[in-house]
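Section handout 9: paired folding examples.
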Amino acid sequence: MSTTRSTRQTLLPINALFVGDIVTQLIFVFDTDTIAEVAGKIAEHSVGVRIARRDAPMVVYFNGEPLPMSETVAGAGIQALQCLTVRYAE
């Protein structure tokens, strides 16, 4: 008999700004999303629209500190309506 554990995902609205954009976004993410997935969701609304697409990695900041891309939203302590900032790495 196989034991399967179901992890319940919580959908969270977060405020997000891609540096250089003039628009902040309300983005929905799961608490189980990695920061890399969150960066992609945020970039989707700015990059190629108001921000030029670049072949460079992105960095996500929470409370002014960069987050590890493999961390989850819950693991980083991000809660509903908190603000994340994303930029291309220099």
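Moving on to protein 2 of 2.
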Amino acid sequence: MRKRSLIAIMAAGALVFAACGDDDDDAAGTDVELTTEDTAAPVTVAGDDTTEAAAITAAGADTTEAAAITAAGADTTEAAATTEAGGDTTEAAAITAAGADTTEAAATTEAADTTEAADTTETGGDTTETGGDTTEAADTTEAGTETTTEAITFPVTPGADWPESLVFTLTPSQETGGLIETAEPLAALLEERLGIDVEPIVPADYAGVIVALQSGQAQIAGGLGPLQMVQAEEEAEADLILQSERFGSFEYVTQWFTNDPDTYCDDEPVANEDGLLFCNGILDAESASDGPIGEEHLADVAGETVAFVDQGSASGYLVPALQLLNAGVDPATGITPLFAGTHDASVQAVYDGDAAVGVSFNDARGGMVEQLPDVGEKVVVFAWSFPIPNDGFAVAGDLPDDLKAAVTAALVDIAATPEGAELLASLYEIDGLRPVNPADFDVIRELRTELADLLG
């Protein structure tokens, strides 16, 4: 395996929203330029934190306006799970682990209008055991229509129309340095299965991920929050392929937390088994579907400094902004918004007293206990939002169809291996992957419409 060079990509401007008219065209036409010179707003390939950039440097300078990519830094954790799906799905499940001594013939027979795939695996006359190296990629369409299932054996032979390499962009929901370190071995596993180079990159903000897809400078995107999933499909014309599972669920919530429980808690905060404090009955909730909880206290947030994550984050801004509006508090003028950049940083802002209240996915505090052992005592969760569909993966819409299927199946196969499962858990706390049901994201589409004026 060749040594992978980490690259950096510039994301132009602020976040692009469908409701924002000409901004879509500007972002879609943005190219990323590589330079070795320091600029006024650089993004570093060394271990510096970045928050919204407009350029790229190969040295390690701190930056403060980032829309590009950094290749090193701290550990990352992505947010909770997603809504159960019904309806149309497209599933790719099929893989044989790289290096396996098997070749597979997929025999297809036709009877009437139904196509069935019969998979056989041969190695000098030997057949693989059940649960072996081959899985199946199933394309499922509407009920009553034809379904075709075919197996993919890895490593695949790249198609004649496949690119020589792919760029895999990841959402910087947490500190980007540790994220890229985990992404490198994941990209290597993809390389082994696809037979082409895969380069991992991490933009410095959420907007950079969408710009990379729009501009053709990334072909695979992972850790896409629910808003990014909608943006990827509607603005970058990407195909949504997989959705993440966490803790046995496919949905999660925004959690509201404070360093002033006397103001926001109706009862004495209680600790869970990890020592993290909750109030207003949240600890009694069994799943995200029990939300919203404690929303009656959001009106008390008026006039306070509130730590958000990023304007491109559903749980870190869009959903809580809508909750504030519904509580009669303008999220732009009724509070002092503080955009921390990551979920961890939002928790940190409340812990440090820079904000009285903050928001994140549930429960972002858990990833900070090692760094801040008393974070669960000083930062108390007092409210939940309604359920939010979880993050997922997308591929560029202009890739060959067989490559899209191979990427999808490769990710599913990786998730089914001990090494891959460990990487995905470390990357974004992903426990499993399933095919995307686009209808799950209707709540986000509606939210974007509702907040169009605010976001514009």
